[in-house]
Amino acid sequence: MKALVYTQAEQLRLQELPEPELEDQEVVLRIEAVGICGSDLHAWRGHDPRRKPGLVLGHEFVGVVERSAHARIPRGKRYTGNPLITCGVCEYCVQGRNNLCSHRTMVGMTRPGAFAEYMSIPATSLIDIPQDMSAASAALTEPAATAWHALALTQRALVRPLQECRVLVIGGGAIGMLAALLLRHAGARALVVAELHAQRREAVARHVACETLDPLAEAVAESGFDAVIDAVGAKATRHQALSAVKPGGVVMHVGLQDWASEIDMRRLTLSEITLLGTYTYTTADLRATVDALHAGAFGDLGWVQERELAQGQQAFVDLSQGRCAAAKILLRP
User: Whole-number mean pLDDT of the chain?
Assistant: First the structure.
């Protein structure tokens, strides 16, 4: 099979690899579409020691069961999946919070991912989709579920209903775009997205129909928002989020561009700000997100770009150098 292999920093090579072997209770999927995640880009730059050269990246996928070693998973059925491989028995799994599983591994990190014609995955990780769901929509389940989970936690912490709140989303990449679309669908009327890239600002304004701003050219209002979603996670955006949130408001930290930085703990304390971190999604989030995507809650997805798998290296270069306006690129094997 053909696969994009991460061979060294800033280098993916299309190689011929053996098809995955079918293990007990697993399936082999023929990949229809796979998204490029920000974490894939981070790894491609050589900044993620967990993802080592020789690995097939990619964890946002939809595919057709080519071979199955599970009695209830038929050949020919289409699925997306939870790329987090969890144990099912730790305290977090039994609580339904399997995103925090103590023993989790991950597709595209600890085992080969979906930048390939075929990929293996445990049958228990498969997520049902409507069989007429478009491949582009189904492949967005994983990043959209990240936005879904983050918004659910944010709403739980807000004092007033979302519809009454002024909300800032920092970053107009895939997670920021999906969060903004979901916020709009959930009834957020006073919504602003801060994004540096001019073409992405235009895409957000067109597809979300909300206010946008360039934070380098226009100051973000201090203490101006009931909720702030940081979909970037850089040192500068963390400071911006804490500056922009009102006293008693909520900051949801989603992005992880920078691994560590100081924040203003004095303001956090004296203004009684709720600072929340979020990691991925639960299986329940993924299932709910499939339904929401299929129902059109995230819009027409016209901001998504598709390319062939063989163009993967160039796609990563374009994303890294800011030459691509699309917040999400899907690769088609």
Answer: 96
| In-domain check, residue 291 | no
Q: Looking at this protein, which amino acid is placed at residue 213?
A: L
pLDDT 10s digits, 57-99: 999 999 999 999 999 999 999 999 999 999 999 999 999 999 9
DSSP states along 21-86 = P--TTEEEEEEEEEEPPHHHHHHHTT--TTS-TTB----EEEEEEEEE-STTS-TT-EEEE--EE-
Quote the number of domains for the chain: 2
Q: Which domain CATH number covers 10?
A: 3.90.180.10
Shared-domain flag, residues 120 and 167: no
Alpha-carbon distances of 140 from 26, 114, 327, rounded to whole Å: 22, 13, 12
> Given pLDDT bands bounded at 50, 70 and 90, which one contains residue 143?
very high
Does 310 map to a domain?
Answer: yes
Evaluate whether residue 295 is within a structural domain: no
As a three-state string, the secondary structure of 114-156 is: CCECEEEEEHHHEEECCCCCCHHHHHCHHHHHHHHHHHHHHHH
Burial of 311 from C-beta contacts in 10 A (0-12 / 13-18 / 19+):
middle
Residues 161 and 193 in one domain: yes
Task: For 285-309, write each residue's pLDDT tens digit.
Answer: 999 999 999 999 999 999 999 999 9
| pTM for the whole structure | 0.96
221 lies in the same domain as 312: no
Distance CA 331, CA 303 (A): 15
For range 110-119, the mean pLDDT: 98
In-domain check, residue 180? yes
Q: What is the amino acid identity at position 171?
A: G
Asked whether residue 127 falls in the same domain as residue 151, the answer is no
Locate 8 and state its tokens: 């060294």
Parent domain of 196: 146-277
- Is 126 found in the same domain as 9? yes
Please give the Cα distance from 223 to 240 (Å, whole number). 10
Looking at residue 322, what is its pLDDT? 87
